[in-house]
Design a protein that fits this description.
The protein has 392 residues and is an alpha/beta fold. It has 2 domains: 2-274, 3-Layer(aba) Sandwich (D-Maltodextrin-Binding Protein, domain 2); 281-386. It has 12 helices and 11 strands. The chain has helices at residues 6-19, 36-45, 85-88, 103-114, 143-155, 175-180, 221-233, 235-241, 264-270, 277-326, 334-356, 364-379; strands at residues 2-3, 33-34, 50-54, 63-78, 93-96, 122-124, 134-139, 160-161, 186-191, 204-216, 261-262. Strands 3, 4, 5, 6, 7, 8, 9, 10 and 11 form a 9-stranded mixed sheet that branches. The chain has a two-stranded parallel sheet with strand order 1-2. Helix 4 links the parallel strand 5 (93-96) and strand 6.
Length: 392
């Protein structure tokens, strides 16, 4: 939508002209210029795809932020400069801030409310000819705006750029912090000394609000992504045409202060370098896989150790049985044979007890031991021991 403010219109015309040669996206301005609120209605209804509005408008769920383009700065002029809010309270200061409904009036009212100023402290007048005490101009800092303010100074002599406090006050709980506390989309801004020649003999502390591109929340995300990419690609050309306007437009612009939700296409652009889901969790998956592999290895290792301990137990029976077998000869007395037979049977009994207690496995090793011990008993020629426990 075509904006009503001349400076905004000329800027968006430059953007549209430079985008005309883009193969990805093209911007065409509407024939009718609409106020910012009316432009939002047109976007929400589908009459337009995009609008350029200030970031102080109330939240709407059918509007989404595409990107900030440039800051608009609150300029406050008074005859003797200095801290403006120190002299307003209770004095019914005459303030010229453009026509009713203008951005200058809206932003000043919002800041004044945070400074606890009301109808008893100031009043708006409709013309510079009504001899204002204070002049409010809410606009980007451009060479054209500098010339305009200088013309105002020539028409109303001895006006100086006023400050909302010391430039060192930001972040120290002073009046400027109170002004932006509940309005996070309004940020402190310092106008350097000499910006407006004799009108700015020292740095002035004020506030700024971004001009943002907004779209319907259901506008195609790929279109929004390409629009952002093309605007940023054309940033040097825009900065050359509009000195001082686009110098703060960065690739990773900040949308955290937006009064509207962020468009999915904008979110995709800002997260273009973020790791994918696979990349984000691949490291975690590798750790989990390593842990699982370690657990499996530990389980198998434990099983092998358990089997080894069982085998070591049955091996002791093997060793003792073989030793007893080797002790048998033709010269072995009957008493020694009885003693050896009793010990072999004791080994068998212990082996069966350990089998029942699961300290031995009923595997091939156990069966070999029973066969071996039975062979020893037969070798002893003991009739009672010929059919020992476990013999089949």
């Amino acid at each position: 939508m075509k904006p009503t403010e001349d400076v905004d219109l000329s800027i968006i015309e430059d953007v549209a002209e430079l985008l005309a040669d883009s193969a990805r996206v093209n911007v065409q301005l509407s024939e009718e210029a609409l106020s910012e609120v009316a432009a939002l209605d047109a976007v929400a209804s589908g009459e337009a795809d995009l609008a350029l509005v200030s970031n102080y408008l109330p939240f709407r769920g059918d509007i989404a932020t595409v990107m900030p383009l440039y800051p608009t700065v609150l300029h406050i002029l008074r005859r003797d400069g200095g801290d403006v809010f120190d002299v307003i309270a209770g004095r019914q200061m005459a303030i010229y801030a453009g026509p009713e409904g203008s951005a200058s009036r809206l932003v000043f009212r919002r800041v004044a409310e945070r400074m606890h100023l009301g109808s008893d402290d100031y009043r708006f007048i409709e013309s510079l000819e009504d001899t204002p005490d204070i002049v409010i101009v809410f606009a980007p800092i451009t060479p054209g705006r500098i010339d305009e303010l200088r013309e105002i100074n020539e028409e109303i002599l001895e006006f100086r750029l006023a400050s909302m406090g010391s430039v060192d006050d930001v972040g120290k709980g002073t009046s400027i912090d109170a002004a932006v506390l509940l309005n996070p989309h309004i940020v402190p801004f310092v106008i350097p000394l000499g910006t407006y020649g004799e009108m700015s003999p020292e740095a002035a502390l004020t506030v700024a609000v971004d001009k943002i591109l907004v779209a319907r929340h259901d506008l195609d995300s790929a279109v929004v992504y390409d629009l952002i990419n093309e605007v940023l690609r054309l940033r040097p050309a825009l900065a050359a045409r509009r000195q001082g306007v686009f110098q703060n437009l960065e690739d990773d612009f900040d949308v955290s202060r937006s009064t509207f939700v962020v468009h999915p296409g904008t979110q995709s652009y800002l997260q273009r370098d973020a790791p994918s889901v696979y990349e984000r969790y691949s490291g975690v998956a590798e750790v989990v896989a390593t842990i699982v592999l370690g657990l499996v290895s530990a389980i198998f290792g434990g099983m092998r150790l358990y089997k080894m301990r069982r085998k070591n137990r049955i091996d002791t029976f093997y060793v003792r049985t073989i030793a007893l077998q080797r002790a048998i000869s033709e010269q072995t007395s009957d008493d020694d044979r009885q003693r050896i037979a009793a010990e072999v049977r004791d080994l068998q009994t212990r082996a069966f007890d350990m089998l029942i207690d699961e300290k031995l496995a009923a595997d091939e090793s156990f069966r070999i031991f029973i066969t071996l011990s039975n062979d020893v008993l037969r070798q002893l020629g003991n009739p009672e021991a010929a059919s020992p426990i476990g013999d089949t």
